Amino acid sequence: MNEPSCAGRLEVGLAADGRLRWAAVDLTAVVEDARRRLDLAPVPAMAFGRCAAAATMLLRLAEKTPRRLEIDVRGDGPVGRVLVEARSDGGIRGLVGDVHATGSAGADDYRVGPAVGKGLLRVRRVEEGGGAYESQVELVTGEIGTDVAHYLEQSEQRQSAVLVGVLARPSGIASAGGLILEALPGASERLLGEVEQRLGGLESISRLLGRVG
Questions:
Q1: Phi and psi angles of residue 195, each rounded to the nearest 5 degrees, phi first
Q2: Angle at 161 between CA 5 and CA 182, to 5 degrees
Q3: Beta-carbon count within 10 A of 106 CB
Q4: Using CB atoms within 10 A of its CB, is residue 122 exposed (0-12), middle (13-18) or buried (19+)?
Q5: Distance CA 140, CA 47 (A)
C-alpha cells in the first residue's frame, strides 16, 4: 500500500454537557498527496479520502486506541476496492482498485456511491499486543459516511452521525475530511432529533472545510 507522508489535523471533544462525543479531521494535504502518488482520478480520490477520514476518526474514538485501524470497502462498482489503514503514530496508507474509475455528476462534482456499488465494508483493529478484531456489514449506499454509521450501529451498538467528504477540482484536492458525532449514555431522543435536524441543514462537509481552510 502506498503511504502519504503527513497525517492532517484531528480534534476530539465533548458536547451537550458530555452527552455527545465528536471527532473532526482535516486530511486535505494527505488526500492530495495520495492523489498524486497513486495517480487517482477524482472519484477514486473521493472514495479514498472518505475512507481515510473515517478510519482516522474511528481510530481516535476507540475506547482503547488500537495500533492501527483498517477500513476495507469492496464493492461491485467501477472503483472496486478501497483499503485505508490509519495508525496510532499518525501514518495513513492505502490503495484503490481502479485508480482511473469514473462516476456520475453530483452535489460535490461526482457521486461516490454508484462508483463503489454494492458490497461489504470491513473494519479491522490491530491492538498493540498483536491481537486483532474485525467486523463487517453490507454497504448501504456506497457513499462511505452512511455506511460507517451503519457499521457503528450494527457492529458496535454506537449511534453516530458520520459526515465525510472530499472536494476534488481539476487542479487537485480542494478539501478533504470529516466529522463523527456519537451519542453517549444519557443522550435523549429529543437531543438526537435536534442534532439530526441541524446536521441535515449543513452543506457538505467538504465545502465547509474548504471555507475554513
A1: -65, -45
A2: 85
A3: 14
A4: middle
A5: 15
